[in-house]
Sequence to fold (344 residues):
Amino acid sequence: MMMMMDVDEQFKTKWKRTWRKAISGDPERRIRDHMGDREVQKRIKLVDTASFTLGVFMAMFAEYLILALPAAFPWFYLVTLALLMSLRYTTYRAINNHFFMLDFCYFVNLSVIVQTILFPATSAFGAAWMKANFVLSHGPIAIAILAWQNSIVFHSLDKMTSFYIHIMPPLTCYLQRWAIIPGAVPDTPLDLSFGDTIVTPLFIYCAWQAAYLYIQATVIDHDPDLVTSLRYLTQCPKNPMYIITIDVCKRLGVILPGEIYHPDEVKTKVIFVVGQFIYALLWLLPTPLLFHLRFLNTTFLLVLVIAGIWRGGSYYIFVFSKIYNKKFEPEQGLAPADQPSKDK
Fold:
């Protein structure tokens, strides 16, 4: 069940006493029991308001850099990436989710920031690396925003970080490709060959996959408490990827009726790796259109951002507003001090 819970909820569950002490000063009493205290209410609302304000400010500051100081954008990317990854590792490590950070999206973020700052596309090596980053970031990484329904929820660090790691690589590559970052590309026109579109990106992808499988065999398989993408997706039957994978494998006869789809089985690992490879390959194919047509490239990124905003807005209106106000309301018929002691 821990693998199926939201990361925020896992973190709050494990560190409930810490949260209670930080908010109310009493680690033994539920935070809900303090909601009648106006000072506690003000403190919680102040923290949430500050988080929301910071999220909006950072989005506006990134827009300012793109429009006014694009040369500084890679450094903004570097600083924010370092901070967010440090925070994510700390929270994920507390709930044994830190091996999620070996996933391909994190690898692409590292690849893009290193290439952007140290190897601009003005050299042959830098140009080849930039093209590979472009197709990888605009293909499997960008589409993950739609596939996994990433949302822009400014007060949630976990949701904002998830959106960040999928939007920043294609956005940075976009700024390089269309020479918005000064000196990022040569003056001569850039082309995108078959090797640039398929061969080089898949070589990078396979190198990452090989490293991941080595860590899987030497570390992850020996610790059943670690949570990874494989273990999460193969035990989450409501996830779209799980549903599609099971359906296709049963139709092909790979998985027999009644057979258990378990993450520790070799067959499950093979299915997962092959499925990821096919997903990556399929979404590499349309990227030359984005590379050669700036209007289409711009529209594509705009759609991704709008999708994140739309889902974030839906979350605030239909989910968060009800939950947030409800947690400040004492249970009917009971004073805060008389409420039952079961955890909420």
Summary: DSSP finds 13 helices and no strands in the chain. Confidence is low (pLDDT under 50) at residues 1-5, 332-344. The two ends are 16 Å apart (CA to CA). The chain has one domain: 70-327.
